[in-house]
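Hello again, I could really use a second opinion on something today. My current little project is about how a certain protein chain folds up. You're getting the sequence in one-letter code plus the fold written as tokens. Here's the protein in full, and shout if anything looks odd to you:
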Amino acid sequence: MFLTIFFQMFSFTSNIGIFGKTLILIFLTIACFLFGYFLAAIIGIPLFGINIFSQQTAPTDNIAYLKFLQSILSIFMFIIPTIVYWLIFGKNISKDLKLNVIPKYKTILLSLLVLIVSLPLINFLSNINSQMDLPDCLSQLETWMKQTEEANAELTNKFLNVDGLNNLIVNILIMAMIPAIGEEFFFRGCMQNIFSSKNSNIFAVWATAFFFSAFHLQFYGFLPRFVLGAFFGWLTVWSKSLWLPIISHFFNNFCAIIGVYLINHNNISVSIDTVGSNSTWPAALASLVVCIFLVIKIKKIETKNA
């Protein structure tokens, strides 16, 4: 009875446009984020002995607490708002989120292959992006961007610098699985859907990729993440399944985590972040050509019987 009355309150939502839906999504995200932060702070007192209410910022020396905080915030900032949004605007969450369609195994393998083959291209773009130099009038902005980039990189390195299989599994959970599910729920499962309701898929995919990359606040890695976001977006469009970008997103993060772990333990000597970064443009071009071929193949397989 209560649920029936609750959902009848939102019967007006059928008349809300893209701008209104976007505002509601933003409101839900902020509200859930604040609630998640408050919940994590409360739990952190008995669990980690940290009272964040008595500190201006989260403690940067307690990595276990920061990992816990990131996990909670990822869930409450991406997964919960998306579910609430579709409870308001949708009819069937599984169908609305495109979770009811299982992608073809060939498409999954090809998508993962694209991520591997694209390494020279992605790292080449990252190298170009890192050379970004803003004009003098924006020097303060550039300083802030560099400081934010360095702080994020330092925190990421602390997260990744672990010993033992158990800690590695924890990293895979909080830095690969939860972000892959949460970010794809939010960006491809919700935001891209909002943008595509009155616009073309082209606009929806690239606009969502822009916000996806901007959200990470890693400005000197914006370009490669923007391209990856667009790739995940087109996978969603062609396969009509959110599982394909979730799997691809997870694989991308998983490889980075495993790569750093193996390097830190002297199992390998080459980081995947350096593959192609110091090469000339022909290597990146060759990577691009192969990726285009594979992407076209994915599109043909997924849209063949559409």
Notes: The CA atoms of residues 120 and 275 lie 5 Å apart. Confidence is low (pLDDT under 50) at residues 1-7.
